[in-house]
Structures are given as C-alpha cells and as structure tokens.
Amino acid sequence: EEPILVPEEEVQLLIQTLEKASTSLISTNKLIKYEGFWYPASDESLKNILMFQRHFCARDSDLILASHPKTGTTWLKSLLFATVNRNNYLKHDNPLFKNHPHELVYRLENNIYDEVHNHYPRPHHLNELPSPRLFNSHLPYSSLPESISTTKCRILYICRNPLDTLVSLYYFVLNIIKKKKGGEDFQPPSLEDFFEDFYDGRAIHGPYFDNVVEYWKLSLEQPQKVFFMKYEDLKKDPESHVKKLAEFVGVPFTMEEEREGVIQEIIELCSIKKLKELEVNKNGAINKIFDKESYFRKGNVGDGIHYFTPNMVERMNKLTQQKLQGTGLSI
Ligand code: A3P
C-alpha cells in the first residue's frame, strides 16, 4: 500500500479557489487555471500535478523532455530514447519495436503520479530506474518541482509553429471527445471556435506562447541546462539536430558511428512513417483516454495555414510577433 501523498480534500478545496473556463472543445468538463496555465478541471489531473511538484526528486543525470502538447513530443521521445540507449540493445531488439514511445519515456505529471490509470512505475519505483532516467512534462518551467532547477538535470525543449500545433491539438482532442460521446448525431466543435480559444490562450496547457517563452529564455540564460529545438528545424535537418542532441546529453556520436550511419539509422527508426507502421503503435491505448495511434497523424510542416482564412492566419502571425517580440525567437 502506498501512502496517500496529496489528500483528496486538499485537491478539492484548491479547485474551488481556482479560476475556471469552458472552451469550445471542453464545454462540460471545464478548465482550471493553476499557476497561470489551463488544465482539465478534474481532481485527478490537479492531484497528479501536485504529486509531481511535491514529490519528484530529480537526479543530476535525469533528462527531461519538455514541451507544449502536439509540438513533437512523441518524436523527440523516440529520438532521445534511441540515441541514449543505442548501445544497450541489438538493432533488431530495440524496445521501440515493442513499446510506444510514451511507454519508454514517462510523463511526470501524468503516467507516474496517476493513481487511476496506473500500469506505469509508481513514485517509489522511480528511485530504482537506471540512470539516465528519461521523462517528459508538459508543465511550464515555472511549475516544475524545485529539484529540476537545483540539480544538474538537463531539459530538452521542442516547440512548433502555433497553427500546426493548434490543428494537431484540435484533431487529437476531437478524437477523444468522439470516442467518449460517439454516435452518428455527434456534432463536432468547430476548428474556428477552437482557434479563438487557442488564440486567447484558453486551451489545455495554454497559453501556448507563455510555455514556449519561459523555456526559450531559460535556454538563453543556461544553455547547458536547456537545449531548445523547433519541430520545423528538426524536420529540415534531423541529422545535425540528433548530433547536437547527443552531445547535449553527454553521449556524442563517435566518428566511427557517424561513418557507419548510426545517426541515419536512428532517424529512420524514429520517422513517423516507420513508427506509424509498427503494430505496437497501431492498437491499444496508453491509458483510459489516449489511443496509441492518435500520436501519429500527418507530421507535416506548414499544413496548419490551409485550415484557416487569410485573416485568421494574419491574426495568428501578429499575435506570434507580439508574444515573441524582443525575445529573439521566431516560430
Ligand atoms: P500532426 O497532428 O500535425 O500530424 P506530440 O507528440 O507532441 O503529441 O505531437 C504530435 C504531433 O507530432 C502530430 O502532428 C504527429 O503526427 C507528429 N509526430 C508524431 N510522431 C512523429 C515523428 N516520428 N516524426 C514527425 N512527426 C511526428
């Protein structure tokens, strides 16, 4: 029996005090604003965040993949796993063939502290995981537990252009709602309405730009702590990114590995085409909510603008400029 780490009553009391909102996609189950960001208004979800914040002890060797949802987390998980563990398995025996990337890199505020869908390691098992431990989180840097900033653990961050991110998020959440509500008379919420929610920062894990800018600033202040990537750059030149990523996490590719094409093999293995075809990623679910296949959709760059009117694209471009002004970042 594990101790109850954050009492239910405390979570419920806290929820009562938080700002709430409904959105086009989540009208019945409202969102709550916690530490400046929106999350599902469920006891479960908030409790998991609190558990993570209070009980996670980072190690110097931990590698934490941070991102806003739908910016390339799954891709980066597979690349990171394959790079770090490249000498631990025979090629045909890579765990990526038998496990979804989300089963190899655990999500800190969800998989681990999630008491409801738990087939993942429990908090006390975290200490038994071999180093380097690979994790991911969708929380903003300001909400991460203190030990992440006080230890030498490293953060890899990925961002993506806002329109592609929002279209990806829309279809991902739509899938979940359809599964829940089902039926032929189901009227899906519109992408236009979701655009407005996302634009206003009122979507799960939003405001999007706040998440990006926090990590971007940190990556400038502490380049040894945060490695900042863009989905679009990774797509354009995966080789140089995987090389840099390996250097950043302390396992650079040797000349011999480069000559033998090890980097190319990793990129191939982690391509959306390849991962999508694997049986393990086609069937089943990560937990009660997320289907494994829903993490692999199109994987294109710049597709987002085709879903919106020129006026909407223009508005989003302006907002992006405004939010990133003075930061030196463009996405
Ligand atoms: P699209 O919905 O635009 O296709 P996340 O992993 O952060 O949830 O992001 C999911 C997005 O990344 C989806 O984008 C998905 O198709 C894309 N994706 C998943 N695996 C990928 C891979 N191996 N390479 C490139 N893109 C990938």
UniProtKB/TrEMBL annotation:
GO molecular function, one term: sulfotransferase activity
Key words, A-Z: Transferase
EC nos: 2.8.2.-
Pfam families, A to Z: Sulfotransfer_1
Residue ranges annotated for the Sulfotransferase domain, each copy included: 60-328
The keyword Transmembrane is annotated on this UniProt entry: no
InterPro entries (alphabetical): P-loop_NTPase, Sulfotransferase_dom
Cross-referenced PANTHER family: SULFOTRANSFERASE SULT (PTHR11783)
Family: Belongs to the sulfotransferase 1 family.
UniProt name for this protein: Sulfotransferase
